[in-house]
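PT: before anyone asks, these are the final sequences, not the draft ones from last week. 854 residues across everything. Please model them as a single complex and drop the result in this thread when it's through.
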Amino acid sequence: MYDASTLFAQLLNGLSYSSTLFLVASGLALIFGVTKIVNFAHGSFYMLGAYIALTVTNALPTTGFGFWGGVVIAALVVGAIGCLIEVTILRRIYQAPEVFQILVTFGLVLVFQNLIYEFWGPDEVLAPRVPGLKGAVTIFGERIPQYNIALIFVGPVFLGLLWWLTHRTRWGRLIRAATQDREMVASLGVNQKTLFTAVFFIGTFLAGLAGALQIPKESANLQMDINIVVEAFVIVVIGGMGSIMGAFLAAVLVGVINAFGVLFFPQAVSVLIFLVMVLVLVFRPNGLLGGRMVAQRPGDLSIDQPFRLPTRAMKQAMLAAVLALALLPLVLPLYFEVIMTEVFILAIFAGSLHFLLSVGGIVSFGHAAYFGLGSYAAALVATRLGLPMAAGVLAAMVAGAGGGLLFGWFCTRLKGVYLAMLTLAFAQILFTLSIQMVSVTGGDNGIVGLTRPSWLNSHMAYYYLALAAAVLATRLMRRALYAPFGFAFRAGRDSLARSAAIGIDTARIQWGAFVLSGAFAGLAGALMAYHRGSVFPTDFSVSTTVDALVMVLVGGVQSVSGPLIGALSYHFVSVELIRNLADYWRLILGLFIIVFVLGVPQGIVGAFMNRFGKGER
Amino acid sequence: MSTPMLEVTGLNAAYGQAQILFDMNLKVRANEVVAIMGRNGAGKSTTFKALMGHLKNRSGSVRLRGEAIEKLPVYQIARRGLGFVPEDRRIFSELTVLENLDLGRQPPREGAAEWTVETLFDAFPNLAAMPDRPGSDMSGGEQQMLTIARTLMGNPYLVLLDEPSEGVAPVIVERLARLILDLKAKGLTILLSEQNLAFAAALADRAYVLDRGHIVFEGTMAELSANEAVCRAYLTM
Ligand SMILES: Nc1ncnc2c1ncn2[C@@H]1O[C@H](COP(=O)(O)OP(=O)(O)OP(=O)(O)O)[C@@H](O)[C@H]1O
Ligand SMILES: [Mg+2]
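LR: through. Structure below.
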């Protein structure tokens, strides 16, 4: 066991990390509170702060002034970039459905990743020690870097500053007022645009500052962005949405748990933090200091008109399309056959997301969790137990459904952005686990050596299996859509309160939808695992989720055949992109997402609505 | 004839595809109190939201003191001197009475009564008794008073008052009526919406009656009170 002095030293280290977490999370909370935008790119501003600070402090003399001045300059530059992004991009999507806001900010994440890679390269960069704080303090016989001690105070200082700003200045009170009621603030003659831009400046400044302050402790790397933003989400959820004091308490909690977790459960720190979040949410659904839940705009993606039952002509067209697809391998070159197989598998995955998103209005931003659960379950059953493929596929569906059962239980207690954040956090935990639990998952190397039964060994046979699975899965999900369950699910999307009033147990229904969706995503994961013969942690990654989201988006959020069409167009393009423009595919994909969402003002939904001549969104 | 304080011509407004207001014409002269009457769902609040610019989906012309404001964003409309007291009150519950008032502050306006916290506390003695109370700890009537006072801090020419008497205790309703008359005496122009004929009759000079988004009657308050057919058909008695 560890002695008291080690524990105390670790406590101090944890508190110094709490400061970093608080700076990031408070900025996120501030931005969310006022603009109601869930800024997934917040971690990118943090990462940007770190890299810019490296460059600036290198250019300045290596004195205390040089370092601290460089940190402040970096934070200011990041704030300015934040303003620019707000004015040019985010300002256009304040009224958009939140899934589009999430997608656009995620598009920014990709763009920033690519640009930072371009400017600073793929390697980790460590800053020199901070002049004036190079030494270490000895406390109870443990040496703790002076810099870490200094950082402990940064959090409380900024808590004080933010408190002063929001309670003692008129401008800060305006921020609090706008957090509660933007419309009323405008009615009193306040220009929201400048208010929003200013809030965005402060928020991104804080993120940039946190990143800049982190460089003496941790080398700057290209994974910083997602890691920190997920932690910041967890903190904001624990602390209570939009509450700065709550963010502080949660940051301290998470920082300390992190520090002790590393000592006691080095492989499962993220699980520990996740458990704490679960505990908090069970006892205080709105977080430690959160007020009532922000009223969400319901029916963001909803339509007044129910999905139509297919007409006879449509049925015939679908049958013809399936037949055509069935005949395709006779003429297709092998390369396309392989790609098409993947398209079918991805269509199942996108379809399962589509089921939650457009039918239930649930933004599952961690949908990769079920895909990965499926692929890993199949891989483990196949390689560890040596069971045949059928068992692997079954295990994958059970694992996906189990994931849906577990996560759905929490997620259906939350709404809107909370839910998006929580689902992302779940997926991210599994992602981390799949990397860290090397003995089970093989870590970064994944698991290889899945073999298909001999009758499925040819590409053509597997093509037909994937096609059949896609057709069957789509049919089953459509069945669910038109069953009483599906109607109740859609009712919940359109108005939770009203469906509750007519006796629909919306939470149960949504929970069921999670299970169903998870099972199909798991199926897709297993089929992909057997297709590739291997599984990797990326199956759990955010980009896997985003791939599915983009497919749904491209195919059309409200069209039932959307996932297949989306998977078809997106997969071909992305495969080609990665093959030919590997260094820029993130940039291109990011810009594509942003332009797509901005360019089609009401997104695909609007286009769909226009076609069917129905009302606003 | 001088330009009216507010002149609305051909106002149409819709939520999405659902049109709510049809070709409305309204006129409010300086220092008048005008009531828009109508049952639940007639479109009173929608009218105010459209005038204030909250409802973007609208057409027609809105002139405040002769100046076209229908293309301006909400905050610009507010800065032209149009004050808005919404029906659901919407005070900032985390902020105290004084802080709420402070957020309503706008520079004084040529030709409009000038309000300060002191003069408002004179006019609203019950607020003066609780300057540091947070909005969340106030009764419905007190909140209603605070919303009105907060709007007055902007020194508006004209105030849109959406159903001030709704959900407020009868004693407070009486106090509200006296207050509104005081405000009129100080030179304020008021366009209020109301379902309660007695309340409106005590305050307003003229009235418009709204039914499903159409103006079905227009005249002085006395004419409306005398017109039993209209009252019976379109108003709650
Ligand atoms: N946000 C909205 N979206 C769609 N329809 C709306 C919306 N708000 C109001 N409506 C509809 O517009 C019509 C007019 O509503 P409005 O609120 O203007 O009525 P009102 O006269 O103010 O009624 P009340 O006396 O109940 O306040 C009603 O039929 C209502 O259902
Ligand atoms: Mg109303």
